[in-house]
């Protein structure tokens, strides 16, 4: 037989009620957590991935002298041929990069390698073999690649070859890959 407390309430019943209240609160917390996770998974394209954000922070602040402030990949056939290349082995897709020269003097970008392969680069709509980068000014550059399927996340090893008024053939290679999405909208 259960003993009674000072007010005549059975102690077994009071501890059972506390356990039930705890379980109800735990269940409500779990339901709220599941709803939040479900909403985050329901809208996956609304924000950049953690890897993409980390990559752009690295390339936009820790790399010198050529910084990358944004990147997007797209099919050049969908938006017009950015570099007059005529397709073929050069590729039919583009990585559009917004670059900034963080050096105190002008530099000339003479080449780029993507994952170890030399690639054609140009200012959109122009045919350039080299691109002049003014200090502290953003410049949009297209890099011609084989493919960039819509919705795919790219992880590319980027290496720039450049020169300044004193030296030529200098190389900038980041320690982290550049991460961005392909075909997430019309390139700017």
Description:
This protein is of the alpha+beta class. It folds into 2 domains: 1-42; 49-181, Immunoglobulin-like, CATH 2.60.40. Helices cover 26% and strands 32% of the residues. The chain contains 3 helices and 11 strands; from the N terminus they run ααβαββββββββββ. It has helices at 11-42, 50-61, 76-79, and strands spanning 66-75, 93-101, 107-114, 117-119, 121-122, 131-133, 138-145, 153-156, 158-163, 170-173, 178-181. Strands 3, 4, 6, 9 and 10 form a 5-stranded antiparallel β-sheet that branches. The protein has a 4-stranded antiparallel β-sheet with strand order 1-2-7-5. β3 (107-114) and β4 (117-119) form a beta hairpin. The N and C termini lie far apart (79 Å). The mean pLDDT is 81.
Summarize, please.
The chain is of the alpha+beta class. The protein has two domains: 1-42; 49-181, Immunoglobulin-like. It contains three helices and eleven strands, in the order ααβαββββββββββ.
List keywords for this structure.
four-stranded antiparallel beta sheet, alpha+beta, 3 helices, 32% strand, five-stranded antiparallel beta sheet, Immunoglobulin-like, 11 strands, 188 residues
Query: Which sheet architecture does the biggest sheet show?
Result: 5 strands, antiparallel
State the low-pLDDT regions, or none. Answer: none
Tally of individual domains: 2
Counting DSSP E segments of at least 2 residues, the number of strands comes to: 11
Which CATH architecture of the largest domain is right? Sandwich
Structural class: alpha+beta
In N-to-C order, the SSE pattern is HHEHEEEEEEEEEE
And the CATH topology of the largest domain?
Immunoglobulin-like
Distance between the termini: 79 Å
Radius of gyration: 28 Å
What is the average per-residue confidence, as pLDDT, rounded to a whole number? 81
Net shape: elongated
Subunit organisation of the chains = single chain
**CATH class bucket of the largest domain:** Mainly Beta
Strand content: 25-35%
């Amino acid at each position: 037989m259960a003993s009674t407390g000072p007010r005549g309430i059975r102690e077994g019943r009071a501890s059972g009620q506390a356990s039930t209240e705890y379980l109800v609160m735990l269940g409500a917390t779990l339901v709220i957590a599941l709803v939040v996770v479900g909403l985050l998974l329901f809208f996956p394209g609304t924000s950049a991935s953690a890897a993409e954000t980390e990559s752009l922070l690295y390339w936009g602040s820790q790399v010198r002298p050529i910084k990358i402030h944004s990147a997007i990949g797209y099919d050049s056939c969908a938006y017009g041929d950015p570099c007059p290349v005529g397709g073929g082995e050069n590729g039919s897709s583009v990585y559009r990069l917004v670059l900034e020269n963080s050096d105190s003097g002008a530099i000339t970008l003479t080449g780029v390698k993507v994952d170890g392969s030399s690639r054609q680069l140009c200012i959109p709509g122009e045919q350039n073999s080299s691109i002049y980068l003014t200090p502290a000014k953003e410049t949009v550059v297209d890099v011609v690649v084989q493919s960039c399927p819509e919705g795919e996340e790219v992880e590319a090893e980027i290496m720039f070859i450049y020169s300044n008024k004193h030296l030529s053939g200098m190389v900038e290679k980041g320690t982290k890959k550049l991460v961005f999405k392909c075909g997430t909208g019309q390139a700017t």
